[in-house]
Specification:
Strand 8 (74-79) and strand 9 (86-94) form a beta hairpin. The termini are far apart. It is built from 1 helix and 20 strands. The strands form 4 sheets. It has a 6-stranded mixed beta sheet with strand order 11-10-13-18-15-16, with no helix packed on it. The chain is mostly beta strands.
Amino acid sequence: QPQYDAPAGGLVRLRAAITDVTRIYGFRVDGAEAAVIALDGNPVPQRFAPDALQLGPGQRLELAIRMPDDEGAIVSLRDVRGTKPKVLATLRAVGQSLKRDLRDLGPLEPNPVAEVDVAAARRIPLALSATAENVAADSICGSLGYSFWAINKVPWPGDTPDPTAPLAELKLGQSYIIDMENLTPHAHPIHLHGMSFKVLSSSTRAVQPLISDTYLIQPDEKVQLGFVADNPGDWLLHCHIIEHQKTGMTSYLRVT
């Protein structure tokens, strides 16, 4: 709950990174006009108010906040998910108003992420489910002694010398679409290493074509994530809630 001073009537760029590996947050700003300008290190196509925006472990949020004109006014960044909303940080307006406008903040420069060719893309089915099979082996990060989650019905065996086969073997430079379905009653922040994807569509809501490396999939949601396999190697794909990762919800993509 830090408090920062900021010029009254000025613009503040606030970055929050979720380093708690267990909690999903619902972000809201009270006491000032605010807009989401970037998520997970990428500018959003269209800025929007953080109205209980849900983000999970490992995700990054960047806000532009227009401070109040009155000296001493308090702006709060809150987590409103759950039954007990919490204040995460506050900003205090100081000095005479600078009378700025959120529209003064120009567009952010896009990152050089390859554009997916949807028409030529190959599909990768990905189902998130629960399991009680195949106890995970001890590994460098330890083990909880059981498996509970799975990707495409395969629970991750642990960081062993002979891991499970890759979820898919991808051709370098080819476009792909992950057809991800959440069959569980829990939300999962699914994180891809090594590459970024574009959010193409969701079965439950309208989505912006965001560029990201993490997608918080809701219960019973189906989502399409498009990307170009432009980075050779074996790349982890897992839930960023570490208990879920360590108990089976982990796989990897192989790009050659």
